[in-house]
Specification:
About 25% of the residues lie in helices and about 50% in strands. The chain is globular and about 50 Å long. This is SRPBCC domain-containing protein. Pfam families: AHSA1. Belongs to the AHA1 family.
Length: about 160
C-alpha cells in the first residue's frame, strides 16, 4: 500500500443532503459526474448500500473506460467511502472518502430580494494512489467532477 493521497475541496451552494443524494441516484449521477469536457457517461449502475457495487462507464473518443468499486460506508448526509478501480489506477483498488460539511449560509439574490442559501464544503480524499502521475490525473478528474456537481446544482435551483 502506498501513502500517496489526493485531497480536493469545493464549496457548493446546496444542502449537504441534496449533494449526498446526487452521488447515489444513477439518473442524477450521470448528468453531473463528468471528469472533463471530452468525456461522457455511457452507462451507470449503482447499488447504494454498504457492500453494494457501482460501475461507471465513461466514454472518450468512442472508447468505454469502466470505473468501478464497492461502497464501504454510507452515512447520510455526511460521508461516503468507496473503493475506486479504473485504468487510471492500473486496475488496483484505491480508496475514496467524500464528506459533506454544512457551512454558514451565504446571502444571494433572487427575484424576491436577498435570500440565504445553504452552503456545503465537499471534501474528496483519494488514497492508495501509486505515484505523482496517478495523483495528477485524478486531481484533474475529481476537480472537474466537483465542478460538474456545482454546475448541476445551480441549474436545479
Amino acid at each position: 500500500m502506498t501513502t500517496e493521497v489526493l485531497r480536493v475541496e469545493k464549496k457548493i451552494n446546496a444542502e449537504p443532503a441534496r449533494l449526498f443524494r446526487a452521488w447515489l441516484k444513477a439518473e442524477d449521477f450521470s448528468r453531473w459526474f463528468l471528469s472533463g469536457d471530452l468525456i461522457g457517461i455511457e452507462s451507470t449502475n449503482i447499488d447504494p448500500r454498504p457492500g453494494g457495487r457501482f460501475q461507471i462507464n465513461m466514454l472518450l473518443d468512442g472508447k468505454i473506460f469502466p470505473h468501478e468499486g464497492e461502497y464501504i460506508t454510507i452515512e447520510e448526509p455526511t460521508k461516503l467511502v468507496f473503493t475506486w478501480r479504473s485504468h487510471a489506477t492500473g486496475g488496483r483498488d484505491t480508496l475514496v472518502t467524500v464528506t459533506f460539511t454544512a457551512l454558514p449560509a451565504v446571502t444571494g439574490k433572487s427575484s424576491a430580494g436577498a435570500v440565504n442559501k445553504p452552503q456545503t464544503l465537499v471534501t474528496l480524499v483519494h488514497e492508495r494512489l501509486a505515484n505523482d502521475i496517478e495523483i495528477k490525473m485524478h486531481h484533474h478528474g475529481w476537480a472537474s467532477i466537483l465542478e460538474g456537481l456545482e454546475n448541476w446544482m445551480a441549474e436545479k435551483e
